[in-house]
Amino acid sequence: PSIPRHTNRLINEKSPYLLQHAHNPVDWYPWGQEAFDKAKKENKLIFLSVGYSTCHWCHVMEEESFKNKEIGEIMSKNFVCIKVDREERPDVDKVYMTFVQATSGGGGWPMSVWLTPDLKPFAGGTYFPPEDGVHRVGFRTVLLRIAEQENKDSLLESSRKILEALQHVSEIRVRGQESPPPSKEVMTTCFQQLSNSYDEDYGGFSKSPKFPTPVNLSFLFTYWALHRTTPEGAQALQMALHTLKMMAHGGIHDHISQGFHRYSTDQHWHVPHFEKMLYDQGQLAAMYSRAFQISGDQFFADVAQDILLYVSRDLSDQAGGFYSAEDADSYPTTASEEKQEGAFCVWAAEEIRALLPDPVEGATEGTTLGDVFMHHYGVKETGNVSPMQDPHQELKGKNVLIVRCSPEVTAAQFGLEPGRLGALLQEGRQRLSAARAQRPRPHLDTKMLAAWNGLMISGFAQAGMALAKQEYVSRAAQAAAFLRRHLFDPTSGRLLRSCYRGRDNTVEQSAVPIQGFLEDYVFVIQALFDLYEASLEQDWLEWALQLQHMQDKLFWDFKGFAYFSSEAGDPSLLLRLKGDQDGAEPTANSITVTNLLRAACYSGHMEWVEKAGQILAAFSERLQKIPITLPEMARATAVFHHTLKQVIICGDPQGEDTKEMLRCVHSVFSPNKVLLLADGDSAGFLYRQLPFLASLERKDGKATAYVCSNFACSLPVTSPQELRGMLCP
C-alpha cells in the first residue's frame, strides 16, 4: 500500500472502524471533550457520523464522500466532524438514532446527524450520495445548505422541541400502582402475532429482508414447553424447527466456511448480506442446541457444531476472547483494486467444475463430482442470483450455495445410493474451502466487546450441555476468564465495554477505557449463570451475583423502575434511554428479568424477584399490546409467572451417579429450571447463600435430586428416569 496522503487524529484510536477513517482528508475527531470544546469555542456546528466496521453502506459513503478532498474541505471548514463506532458507544448511537427515526421515519447506518455546539441534534439522515440525484439530495448540497443557514436560533428552537418530545415518548416507566401484566394473555398475544407474520413456506417472520431473530425462536420453544399437549404448542415448535432448518439450508448459512451471515435480502434465505456478526453466532448456537435437545434430530446438533467451529477458528483471539465481526466486502483476487460484496463467498460454475472434475463411481455414466455438488447446492451456469437481489451487479454470473433438494432426491438424480452422498458433498466442500483459502480474506473487526462475548459464552455453554461436549464448556470458561482478566476492573468491581487486539497479538485497552453499559452486565451475567450450570464451578456464580449488585447500583431507575441503558452522570448524553425492542439482539431489560429470577434462586435474595416484577410492570402496556416487539420479555413473563424450579443434585461432583443425574438435567429443555449442585461442602459459596441446602441429604448414599420452588422441596429421587419425569410434566 502507498504512503497515505492524509492522516487525522483517528490514527490514535483503537477501534478498527475509527482506524478505517484515519486517512480521510477530513479533520475527524473521536467523540470526546476535545471536539466538544472546539465546537463551543469556535461556535461551530457539529457533524456526527456513526457506523461500524463491517457496514457495507458505511464503506460506500466513505469511498464517495469522506475520501473526496473537496467534500472533506467543506466538512472540516464548516463543522467539527466527529466519528463514532456504534459498537463501542451504543449509548451515543441510541440517542441520535432515536432522533433520526423520529424525524425522518427511517434509520440505519451510516447515520449522519448535525448537532448544535451543545450536542443537540437538529438535522439528520442515514446514507447520502455525494451529489444530487433525481430522488435524493446529495451530501455536498446538504453540508452547504446547513453551513449557510443564517438563522441558527430557529434551528436551536426546533431542536429543543424535538428533544422534549423524544424525552417524553422514550420514557418507559411504571405509572401508578401497575403490577406485572398477566402472563397467559401476553404469551397468547405474542404467539398469535408471530404466527400471523410467519412464512409457512420458508420459515422466518417477514417476507424480505429476513433476519435470523433468535429471540422469536427462543419464545416459541418456551411457548411449546408450557403448552406441549395443545395444537398451538405443536405449531409453535414446528414454526421454530422449520425456520432453523430453512436457514441452515439457505445461503445465509456459509456451507463452505461455516457460521451464519447477518441477514437474507430475499424471502428464501438465499442471498445474504455477507457480514458475519458474533452476536448472531452466539445466539444461533444456543438455538440450534435447544432444537437438538427438544427434537433429538442430529441435523440441529451438526449445525450448532458448525457455528462453534467457525467461531473457534475465525473469531477467536489467542488470549480467549471473541472478535466482533467479519466484513461482507473483500477483494475478489489478490490483483483486484476494488472490494466487492460477497467476493470471498461466491462461486462461478466453471470454478466448481474445475475443482471437482472426478468421475463418480456407481453413478449414471459421465457424472462428475461437480455435477452432483452443483445440483445439490443449486449452482447454475449463468449464476443463481436474481438481478433484483444484486443492485450493483456485483454477483453477476456468480452462485451463492443453497441446498435445493433433500439428499435422497440428489442421490436419485444421479442413480447413487443415498448413503454415499454425504461423503461426496463433504469432499466437495473441503476442496472449495481449500480454494477459498487462497482468496483475500474480508476485514476482521478484532474489537472484543463484553456484551457480545457474553452471548457467545452462553452459546458455547448451552451447546456443551445439550450436546454433552466438554470441550465447548472449556472454551466458554476460557472466554469467561478472558473477560475477568481484560474487561473487568477488580478495584471498582465494574465491567469495561471493549478491548482490542494490538500489535504482536497482545490485548490492548484504550487510554481512557469505555465503561460497561447495561447490556454488558446483563449478557455477561447470563453467560456466567449458563457457565455455572454447564461447569458447576461456583466462582462463576459468585462473580455473577457481584455484577448483579453493581448493575443495580449503576443503572436501576428508582422512580420509574427497570434499568437505564447507560449510567447517570455523563453530561454529553442528552437522554438516558431504556431499550424497548428485542431485535437482532435481545434488549437488556428483557434478559435481565430471567437473570434476576435466577440470581434469587442462587442467593435467596427475594428483592431480585420483586425487581423482575417491577420491570415487567414498567413494560406492561407494550407487553399487552405488541409483545411481538419484545418476545424475550414476553417469554420472561411466563418464567416469572410459573416460578423457577431449583433442581438440586446432592452428590459428589466426580461420582458417576452424579454425572448421570446431571446429564439427565442437561438433556431436557425446561424453561423454568435452575440447576444447583449441592456437593456437601458446607463452607462453600452456595451453602453460605442457601442454608436450606444443608438439610438435603443423599438417599442411600446415592446422588439424589430434589426439585424445589419457593423453598419447598419435592421428595428425593435417585434415578434419572424419575427426575426426567419431574422435569417434563
UniProtKB/TrEMBL annotation:
GO terms of biological process kind: carbohydrate metabolic process
Superkingdom of this protein's organism: Eukaryota
Chain ranges of the Spermatogenesis-associated protein 20-like TRX domain: 7-167
Transmembrane segment boundaries: none
InterPro entries found in the cross-reference section: 6-hairpin_glycosidase_sf, 6hp_glycosidase-like_sf, Ssp411, Ssp411-like_TRX, Thioredoxin-like_sf
Xref: PANTHER family: SPERMATOGENESIS-ASSOCIATED PROTEIN 20
Protein name: SPT20 protein
Protein's organism: Caloenas nicobarica (Nicobar pigeon)
Gene: Spata20
